[in-house]
Structures are given as C-alpha cells and as structure tokens.
Amino acid sequence: MNGSSFITYNTLIVLLGTSLLGGTAGLVGTFAVLRRRSLTGDALAHASLPGLCLAFLVWGERNLLALLIGAFCSGLLGVAVISGLRRFTRIKEDAAIGIVLSVFFGAGISLSRIIQNQVTSGSKAGLDSYILGKTAGMLAQDVYLLAGLSLACFLIIVFLFKEFSLVVFDPAFARVQGWPAFLLDLGMMALIAVVVVVGLPTVGVVLMASLLILPGVAARFWTDRLQSMVWLSLIFGACIGWVGTLISANYSLFPAGPIIVLTGTVLFLVSMFFAPRRGVIARRFADYHFHRKLRLDAFLRRIYRAKLRPEQLASAKLTLSPLRMAVKPEPRIVQLAIEQGLIVPARENTVEFTRDGEQFARQLVRDEILRQQIILRYPQLSAELYEEDDLRDWQQRFPDEYQVLVADLPPLPLPSEWRAS
Amino acid sequence: MIVAQFWSAWELPLATILAGVLSSLPCAILGCFLVLRRMSLLGDAISHSVLPGIVIGALLSGNLLGWPVFLGAVVMGVLTAILTQSLTSHGNVSEDAGMGVVFTSFFALGVILITQLARNVDLDPGCVLYGLIEFIPLDTVKWGSWEVPRAFFTLVPVCIVTILFTLLFWKELLLSSFDPALATSMGFSSMVLHYLLMGLVAVVSVASFEAVGSVLVIAMLIVPPATAHLLTDRLGRMIVLSVLCSISASIVGYWGATRWNTSVAGMMSVVAGLQFLLALVFAPRYGLISRTWHNLSLSFRIIAEDVIAALFRAEEEAPQSAGLKIADCFRLAGGGWGPWLLLPLLKYRGLVLAAPQGRLQLTEKGRTRARSLVRSHRLWEAFMEKHFDLPADHLHAPASRVEHYIGPELQDKLKEELRGPDVDPHGRQIP
After folding, report:
1. Distance of CA B262 to the CA centre of its chain
2. How many residue pairs bridge chain A and chain B with CB atoms within 8 Å of each other?
3. How far apart are CA B169 and CA A418, in angstroms?
C-alpha cells in the first residue's frame, strides 16, 4: 500500500462497500457463468433502467429504496421475459437477451430524457450516475445495506448450495428428481438482480456485468471443484473491489467503477495465463511434453522395425504398421532417447538399442498393434482408447476380447535375441 | 435528395428520419445473419467496445463526428471479434464469458478515457452512449449546390457496401448460416466469411453509432431481425421484412420522440420492441395466438377420435347393443370436459347419433373413421411387439398416443412390414 497517502474515513467506507459488492457479485455471478449465462447480468443491468426511471417519476429522487425496488422489479421482469422467450418461442437465448437488453434500455433512456425535461438539472446528475457509476457518494448507511444484503446472499447460497449446483449442472435431472428447477432458477436470477440493483449506484449499469463475470471466470482457471470455485470467486471479487478502489483513491482523477473493472481484467489475464493446470502457459507445457512423448514413441517403434530382418517383419505381420517415413529423425528426439537410456549411438550415424530400450520398444509396438486390432475388430468398444493408461483399462473391462487379441498377436522378437540365434 | 435549408417544417424531420433509416438499414440486414448464427450478442459486444476507439479518434480530431472516430471504432470492433474468438479457442474460456470480459474491459477503458482526457474536449459521455441523431442534419457539408449532412457520407456508402456484400456472398452466407460444416466441406472457408461478417458488423455499428449511440445499435441489430424471424422461414423474406420493420421503427420512433419530447434513439428501440411484441402474438405460424389455436385444434381432434374409438370398441364387444351411455363413453375416452364440449361438433359432422336412453351410436361415417383408428392402434401394437422389447401391458398406452398420427399410407406400410397374422398382441382382430 502507498505509505504516503492515508486512508480517510470516507475512503474506508467506499473500500468496505466495494469489497462487499465485489465479493457478493462474484459469489452469485459464479452460477450464472457456469450456466453460460454470463450476459444475463448485463441484460439485467440494462433492463433495470426503466424501473429506476419510473420509480423516480413517481416517488422523486431521494427515496433510494423506492428507486432500487423499481429497478429490481423491472430487472426481474426483463429476466422473466428472456426465459419466456427462450421457452415458448423460436427465439434463441442470445437473441432474447439482446432484445430485452436493448428495448428495455431504450425505454429507460426515453424515460430518463423525459425526466430531464421535467426536473431541474440537479436531479439529472443523480440519474446519470446510475449509468456510469459514482462511488464517491457512498455513505455509511449504504455500506450497512450492502453488508446486510451480502450476508443474506451468502446464507441463501450456503443453504441452497446443493440445489443450486444441481440446477446449474444438470437441470433436466433436477426436474426429473422432483426439485422445482424453475423456481430455483428464478431464485438464482433474483439474487443476481438484487446484487445488480444494489451495485448500480456504485459502478453503474454498464459496468455491473463485469463484476458478475470476472471473479467467476478468473476463479474457474484455478480449480475444478464447485465449492472451491465459489469461495475463490468471493475472495477474488472482494479483492478486485478493494484494490480497484485503493488505486482510484490514490489517483483521484479516475472514477472508481472502471478502475475496479480493469483490476478485474488484470486478475483475469493473470489467471488465464499463469494458472497451474488450466492456464494457457501450463497447457502449452503439457501439450509440448505430450507431443514430445508421442514423437519419442514413434521414433522408437521405427527403430525397432528397422532393426528387424525382412523375414521377421513379414512373419510378424508388421507391414500392417503405419507408413514408413523416409525422413531423418529429429536430433532432439534422438538426444532424449539417449538421455533416457534407451539407445546408444553406434558407428556411421546409426544407433543401437540398450537392453531396456529394446524391451520398451517392443512393448510400444505390441501396444500399437493391439490398438489397431481393437479398432478393426471391436469398433464399438474402441471409444475410450484415447486416454493415458487406456490399454490396461480396456483389458480390465473386456478381458475376454483382450485374450482373443493377444492370442492373435504375431511373435515380436527382440533384435538382440535374433542376433544371438 | 436532401435539400439545402433545414429550416422548413418538413426538411429537418425528413433528414433526421432519413438518418435513422440509413443507420438501421444495414443493421437490419446484417443482424439477420447474426441472429441465425446465434451471434446476436457479438453485435452487443462490438457496440460497447468501440468506445475507446471513438474517444481516441475524437481526441485526435477534436470532434465527435469525423473520420478518425470512424477508423478508431472500426479497429476496436474488429479487435473485439478477434479477441473473443482467441479467448474461446486458445484461452479455454466459454464463449459468452469471453465476450463479456472483452467488451466490459474495453468499455471501462473507454469510460476512463472519456472522463480523464475529455476534460480538454467538450465530450459528454451521454451522447457517446445514446447518440445525437438530432444534430446530424445540422452538421452539413457542401456537395454541389446542396447542403448534405456530413453523416450521410458515411451512412450511404456503408448501406451500399452492406447490400453489395449480401448480394455477392448470398449463397455462401445462406449456407454457412445454416450449416457451417457443410459450407466448409464444400470448399469455402466459413472462418473467413465469419471474420468478414464481423468486420462489417463493426463498420456498421460505428456508422450507426453516430445516429443511435453505441448501446442502441444492438436494438437495430437484433430486434427487427428477430421480428422477421417470427414471421417467415425463408432468408430472403426475412431480410426484406427486417428492413421494413427497421424503417417503420425509425419513422414511428421519430414521431414518438417529437410527440413526447424524448430521445429519438430510445423511442426507435421501444417501437422496434413493440413491433416484436405484435409479431410475437399475431405471427401467422409462430405467433402465440396461432400456436395456441393449433395446439387446441389438435387436442380436440384427438379427443374426438378417442370418443369414436371407444364407441367402436364397445360395438366390437357387444355388437347388438344400442350404443354406449354418454358418460361411460366419455370416461373411456379419457374423461374431463373436452368430450362434452365436442359432442355437438361430433353430431354436426355426422360421426355419432343420439340414441334412446341417453346413449350414443356411431354412424356409418363414424364407424369407418373409428375402424381406421383402431386399425392404426393395433398395427402399431403389433409392430412394437415385434421390434421393441416391451412387456405386453406396456403396449396399449404408447399405441393410444401414436394412433392419431398414423394415416392410411403408414398403415399399409406397417401391414406390409408385419406380414403376420391379422391379430394384435392382445389377440384381437385387426379391422
């Protein structure tokens, strides 16, 4: 933290408020992200505008609760319209979201312009702040409201965690089992609507969507388990709020909303690139190692075939193998094989197998033939053959068929045995 | 053509409406492809993320309506499409989340740029969002002896380019919208077409942004095409209808905006939404009214057939009886109030007769129809017994649902296929 600036009371209020908001948004947004409905939050944020304006017209500007309730109702109406369109018409989900988003927002813009024409310019600024956000105006009572809502959301999610997870991952199964999937869905959407509406004054309509999406998407890179992901989203969201507000407080020229969003983007990028298993860099490494292993195996199989005499090749029916490629083997692969103690360099640019090497190579060729035979003779059973220890698994699952194939294997001599005889 | 002075009563509205029409026309055309390819939200994403490009262009040129703005926005638009695609394919992020991340980040960047750097230039964040169609007719350029709104020099070429693009690539667009794999296998790259389309969407978004603002371009990109989608199944007609809807939305929206003194862009999207609502309810095949009617008439047909089939079966068992009591008959047909409602219709159609003591009897016409129905039922039961692994008491229920959809042709085919005795699995004769 920057030691030269000190945190005022106001800044502390805003810090707490945005952290709470970020954490809760991340928490409820996780479920939306997992359901591939990330942009529903954006639609909700846009759809809440007409309700906000209508409440303003009816009840006047400083009744914050009325404004929020109005925004909540119209947001929820928007979500209901999206669901209805998706379920009862041929309009697909993305078009439904777009329709609701643009039409409701257009209605909101029209209403807000009518309001601007009616009332004095002081109120106009208040309404504008809902579009772009204005954290500086946060008061202690707003933070209390946020804290209460955050706690409520947290408790609801804790109590209904299993039900929500089920509806997220397999709604059809949930319905079949008797859970009221539609109501749970609606409940989830209502939670999101509450968070969106409460967050409107802070980060504004257009940036609320990112607070819902970014923590969840970033957390997804770090874990495969739902519980961890939800906790991580909460923590990430709170951090995004805290750090973003700090940065914008130090450089007070920028509004806090966009800075918070950009902080989230940085977190997302860091997660995407550097996360241990699902990150881009990690996957590139894994890919590289995997492909290297593939090439090494292919190389060893070729050497094995090259070391056998023509009569052995014919008797072993090894002409069923893949085409012989007349290209030079890559030096790095050769080096790798030497390092692993499988071959040794011999005279005139050739190599010789070590004892371990030839056994390993024979096993590779044997496995390759078995795989080919499985695909040729038992195609319906060959679907799972693309994993790590696939052959051992396959042997356990279909022992009888495996015995048949093994019995039909040609004899696979070791090159050193042949030379001995 | 557009005339010089904008101070007469009808010229200003005409120019404004024309600006609206010219902005929404290319959106309506391209939006059809977006909606069909389920990419509607990419238009949304692009129209949000052009903001930084617009601001930078405006700062460089000192003016919100100018070529640097246009260029900046196009760059941002194409960048959005590319980034979203690479996040999805290389970054292992789901498509909607990737889109959300990209456009919200760009939009946040744009807002920061506006509030930070726009202190030096007179830029109101609002107008970037909702557009300034009202000002378009006032910013004119001399062209020959006429004063033409400068915005038209962007809008008209964009319209022409869009129409040319659609005509030129019509077959490819048609195919790749409905079956991209087939399109690729036929030799032209769906990917290239995809990026061309996205680039054009970016250009169109930017051109229209001046009129209706960056966030309301989505309305013009999605709502008229969705309306047209409800009204027809053919792509050509869909595009034409979409264009018509967008034009009428522009005209009526302008009228509404002047009537209630509110934002033109806002009213245009509201009117487009109302048109969509009308199509939703009244569309001839996909509208709610039409589908409800269709479902109801199907239900009634099924109930009617159940009634006469019940009478037929009763006749089979007791050939000399004087018909079935009405209440029993309706109970066998499944109960409920449906049969009661349909009784007059059945009598009117000449399928049943009222018999003494509150009974019903089949007429000859009714008997023929019922016989066919029962034949369908029993043929299907025999078919299921032959080919499916169902126990005998599980055959009746599915057959009583399927029987209504088996016509004479299918009956002949089934009979041919079965080639067996003329009895159903329960041992009853197939009539």
Report:
1. 29
2. 196
3. 65
Half-sphere exposure of B318 (CA within 13 A, CB side): 8
A66 Cβ partners below 8 Å, 6+ apart?
Answer: A55, A58, A59
Hey, what amino acid is at A316?
A
The answer to whether B95 and A74 are in contact (CB under 8 A) is no
d(CA A370, CA A390): 11
- Residues in chain B with CB shorter than 8 Å from the CB of A36 are 94-97
Q: Under 8 Å CB-to-CB from A19, ≥6 apart: which residues?
A: A238, A239, A241, A242, A245
How far does the CA of residue A414 sit from the closest CA of chain B (Å)?
Answer: 43
Cβ distance B107 to A95 less than 8 Å, yes or no, reads no
**pLDDT for position B256:** 92
Determine the Cα–Cα distance for residues B96 and A40; give it in Å rounded to an integer: 10
Closest CA of chain A from B277, distance in Å: 11
pLDDT band at A421 (very low <50, low <70, confident <90, very high): very low
Could you give the CA distance from residue A224 to residue A233 in angstroms, rounded to a whole number? Answer: 13
Q: How is residue A358 written in tokens?
A: 């030839």
Place of tokens 């928490």: A27
% of chain A beyond a pLDDT of 90: 19
Local structure of residue A224 (DSSP, 8 states): S
Q: What are phi and psi of A278, to 5 degrees?
A: -100, 0
More confident site: A389 or A415: A415
**pLDDT lower than 70: segments of chain B:** 1-10, 63-66, 117-131, 145-146, 210-212, 214-215, 322, 420-421
Number of Cβ within a 10 Å radius of residue A387: 9
E strands in A65-105: none
Q: Which of B91, B99, B272 sits opposite A280 (nearest CB)?
A: B91
Looking at CA atoms only, how far is residue A218 from chain B in angstroms?
Answer: 10
Residue A396 above 80 pLDDT? yes
In chain B, which among 310-369 make CB contacts under 8 A with chain A? none
Q: What is the pLDDT of residue A132?
A: 66
| pLDDT (tens digit per residue) in A289-314 | 988 888 888 888 888 877 776 666 65
Instruction: Output the pTM of the full model.
Output: 0.80
pLDDT-derived band at A56 (thresholds 50, 70, 90) equals: confident
> What is the spatial distance between Cα B143 and Cα B129, in angstroms, rounded to a whole number?
30
Nearest CA in chain A to B109: A258
Output b/e per residue, B361-377; b: 16+ Cβ within 10 A.
bbbeebbebbbbbbbbb
| Dist CA B399 CA B429 (whole Å) | 16
Q: What was the ipTM of the complex prediction?
A: 0.82
| CB contact (8 A) between residue A91 and residue B230 | yes
What residues contact A223, with CB distance under 8 A and at least 6 apart? A229, A232
Residues 6+ apart with CB under 8 A from B257: A110, B263, B264, B266, B267, B268
Residue matched to tokens 């209706």: B212
Instruction: Give residue-wise pLDDT tens across range A379-392.
Output: 887 776 666 567 88
Rounded distance, CA A15 to CA A241, Å?
7
CB contact under 8 Å between B105 and A265, yes or no, is: yes
Nearest by CB to residue B108, choosing from A113, A213, A258, is A258
Q: Parallel, antiparallel, or unpaired for β A351-353 and B359-362?
A: unpaired
3-state helix, strand, coil in chain A (%, to 5): 80, 0, 20
Residue B120 burial by Cβ neighbours in a 10 Å radius (0-12, 13-18, 19+) = exposed
Q: How do residues A5-45 score in pLDDT, each as one tens digit?
A: 566 787 888 888 889 989 999 999 998 888 888 888 888 88
Q: Is A398 helix (H, G, I), strand (E, B) or coil?
A: coil
Mean pLDDT estimate for chain A: 82
Write out pLDDT tens, residues A321-349.
444 544 566 788 888 888 888 888 877 76
